[in-house]
């Protein structure tokens, strides 16, 4: 059996990043719902993100999205985050919300639009320099809606050229994380639709480029843990955008739709000894809390990742290897299911007590009165968030 002290140490050292955009008002293309206490500034988003870390102890960084979180002074923003006990994490570029990008950004047929997109990506690296962020995360809405609309291979050439320009701007300790997504907003071709396309670009760029697996960005039924195993084997799994889905890119809370899938994914990560931060796999959340309150929603998500990680760490590796080696199919499956079926909540509650935290982070957050306080204080102004 795995050593419980080692399991707890690994869980206490795990780092889960929360996204600034999860704290603003969100919805679907049909309706964005307003919630009381919604942040009006990026500083208020960081303040909310700090609450998640305060009660979980494992979420010390907050990802920003530019220009949604644009400020004049990024070093000051980093200092502000530090005062609140967190740091600015991944910088997410946004080249999908300008009219210029109707036919794409870095793969647009118009060189002037491509140059504008590359300038934004380079600006994001400037921001990383100021905030001390290590990772630039790129997701492109680029693609086409109709056969014949544009040249598929030429778009790949344009994409590769743009990525190379940005990659050359990275400092040695900085990384470029390239995310893929099967479809949406493009419905015929997407320029980075899958892990293979992302991996090919990363391999062409160099060792500082790695693939991001957003768990909502696959066709239904895709075996995501298989992709994860392959990317780990290639040394190119840069990180995850965790969320869950029933149908498409639903962006629901991670671990809500299919906790067993999350366990299977994390089992691959554990086997590669990549839960520890030094392994370079970033565990990021990318979710939209449309109808549920934001801060406890993020806390719940962090706990879901922790629970799945704990179960993955509890897999009896020696027993599993022995069963696999002897061809004992039923026993191998039973070893895995034993770990999955373990109630890890007492273990995690104990870990939190060891860390000086409340064993029940959601209850502790509710008791703190922070939610009522922001609802009373944050009256007026415009909500900061999606599209602003
Ligand atoms: C995309 C993708 C990106 C996220 C945006 C908001 O679908 O998942 O990671 O930054 O949405
Ligand atoms: Mn994502």
Write a concise synopsis of the structure shown.
With 388 residues, the protein is an alpha/beta fold. The protein has helices at 4-13, 42-56, 74-83, 111-131, 152-169, 195-205, 224-233, 259-271, 294-313, 317-325, 329-340, 345-354, 361-368, 370-377, and strands spanning 16-19, 61-66, 87-93, 135-138, 143-144, 175-179, 189-190, 209-214, 237-242, 282-285.
Listing every helix as H and every strand as E from the N terminus to the C terminus, the arrangement reads HEHEHEHEEHEEHEHEHEHHHHHH
Q: Helix fraction?
A: 40-55%
Distance between the termini: 51 Å
Q: What structural class do the secondary elements suggest?
A: alpha/beta
What oligomeric state best describes the polypeptide chains here? single chain
**Major sheet, described briefly?**
8 strands, parallel, barrel
Low-confidence stretches: none
What Rg, in angstroms, do the CA atoms define?
21 Å
Binned strand content: 5-15%
- Overall mean confidence score, pLDDT: 96
Strand numbers in spatial order across the main sheet = 1-2-3-4-6-8-9-10
Count of DSSP helices?
Answer: 14
Bound molecules: beta-L-rhamnopyranose, manganese (II) ion
Outline the structure in words:
By secondary structure, this protein is α/β, with parallel strands linked by helices. 45% of the residues lie in helices and 12% in strands. The strands form 2 sheets. It has an 8-stranded parallel β-barrel, surrounded by 6 helices. A two-stranded antiparallel sheet has the order 5-7. Helix 2 links the parallel strand 1 and strand 2. The mean pLDDT is 96. Beta-L-rhamnopyranose binds next to loops.
């Amino acid at each position: 059996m795995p050593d419980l002290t080692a399991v707890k140490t690994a869980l206490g050292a795990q780092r889960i990043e929360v996204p600034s955009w999860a704290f603003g008002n969100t919805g679907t293309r049909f309706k964005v719902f307003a919630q009381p206490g919604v942040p009006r500034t990026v500083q208020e988003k960081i303040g909310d993100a700090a609450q998640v870390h305060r009660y979980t102890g494992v979420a010390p960084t907050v990802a920003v999205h530019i220009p949604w979180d644009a400020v004049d002074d990024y070093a000051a923003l980093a200092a502000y985050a530090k005062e609140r006990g967190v740091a600015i994490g991944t910088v997410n570029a946004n080249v999908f919300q300008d009219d210029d990008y109707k036919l794409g950004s870095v793969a647009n047929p118009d060189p002037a639009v491509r140059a504008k997109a590359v300038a934004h990506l380079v600006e994001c690296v400037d921001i990383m320099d100021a905030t001390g962020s290590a990772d630039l995360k790129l997701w492109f809405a680029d693609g086409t809606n109709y056969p014949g609309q544009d040249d598929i291979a030429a778009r790949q050439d344009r994409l590769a050229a743009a990525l190379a320009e940005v990659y050359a701007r990275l400092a040695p300790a900085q990384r470029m994380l390239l995310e893929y997504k099967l479809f949406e907003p493009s419905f015929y071709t997407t320029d980075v639709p899958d892990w293979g396309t992302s991996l090919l670009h990363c391999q062409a760029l160099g060792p500082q480029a790695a693939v991001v697996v957003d768990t909502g960005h696959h066709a239904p039924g895709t075996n995501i843990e298989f992709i994860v195993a392959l990317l780990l084997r290639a040394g190119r799994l840069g990180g995850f955008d965790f969320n869950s889905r029933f149908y498409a890119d639903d962006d629901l809370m991670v671990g809500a739709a299919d906790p067993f899938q999350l366990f299977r994914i994390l089992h691959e990560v554990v086997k590669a000894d990549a839960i520890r931060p030094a392994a370079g796999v970033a565990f990021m959340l990318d979710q939209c809390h449309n109808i549920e309150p934001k801060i406890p929603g993020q806390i719940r998500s962090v706990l879901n990742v922790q629970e799945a990680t704990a179960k993955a760490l509890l897999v009896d590796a020696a027993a599993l290897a022995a069963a696999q080696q002897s061809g004992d199919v039923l026993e191998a499956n039973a070893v895995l299911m034993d770990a999955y079926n373990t109630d890890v909540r007492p273990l995690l509650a104990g870990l939190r007590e060891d860390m000086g935290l409340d064993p029940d982070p959601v209850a502790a957050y509710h008791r703190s009165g922070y939610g009522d306080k922001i609802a009373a204080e944050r009256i007026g102004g415009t909500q900061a968030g999606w599209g602003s």
